[in-house]
């Protein structure tokens, strides 16, 4: 017998308050297993009713905009920690369905697992928005310090950014952010091109103290940086859920693979070459290494900060939607002013990210902490566990042994990154700020 989770999107309608009220329910059916699963295919795409569907192009642009965010400019610093050789070598419902499809003993943990995944996702999304604020403020500080010959407090710059951030995060639908994401993606591509110009305008060298293999202590920072840079896991499912043609999202030539192949190549290239260019002098974002006095450098700092400003709204939308649909709206009565409470939530989340950025205005430390704390679980440990659960009744003997061994190794790497990376990052934060 096997528990199969099927999803119903009935009731997935716009509730009139902007955010769609997702009332997907999971229905369990026990079916007999006789070596294969009954193949009367259930097509979940037919049952979708999305009020403002994203086109394939919209989805690709959103995904590239998120993936090509601040992380790519932090990759040279990640290589600084690990050396230049070694680095070269709706999620919650999926979690519930995976446990319900696995061994019977895990079924009772399916619903609690939703809240565990939600918690890690919320921390990740809020932390990412916090990183965006620190990134923008760091670049704007470089500009203001140069033009006004002053040493502006980075926290004051963050305060100036607070109101515009609140306003853009009042946008209530991803569809309306697509044009801004398109502009932001073009800005990011232009910025990467300019950074590449600065990296390659002089020959790269392997000398001047550049390490082939970094110190053991630096690897947790590298681990956190890389996870943060490459993981867009919490945005992937919401984007797929909003698509007009979701069946084109996956597959060998699907939108996800196309975007991720490009992203990985860019990240590895920028990371390695940026480190070979600046060596141990590379900063938390390579844009901060660019010469302040040159107009092109000033332009890239301004452009990428504007691009990240747009990304902030896309990332925050995930946290807002999760908090609203899963926790806030369920506690409101039918007489409550839902529109007002939605704007209160949006404003509150922006203010939380602002306060965290003010408390720890260090891009390197906060990226490493966030990557180790959340993405080691969301991107490594949990997927390995869910893969075991989902395929538990489909594998036997040697196949099951290989499945378990592979996923145990992946989960161990994730847990090691979580414990070691979080501990070292927290120690550095305490030593620096407290």
UniProtKB/TrEMBL annotation:
Residues 108-425 form the Amino acid transporter transmembrane domain. It is a multi-pass membrane protein. Keywords: Membrane, Transmembrane, Transmembrane helix. It is found in: Membrane. The chain crosses the membrane at residues 116-134, 154-170, 177-200, 220-239, 260-278, 340-360, 366-386, 407-426. GO terms for molecular function: L-amino acid transmembrane transporter activity. It holds the Pfam family Aa_trans. The keyword RNA-binding does not apply. The keyword Transferase does not apply. GO terms for cellular component: vacuolar membrane. PANTHER family: AMINO ACID TRANSPORTER, PROTON-COUPLED AMINO ACID TRANSPORTER 4-LIKE PROTEIN. This is Proton-coupled amino acid transporter-like protein. It comes from Pseudolycoriella hygida.
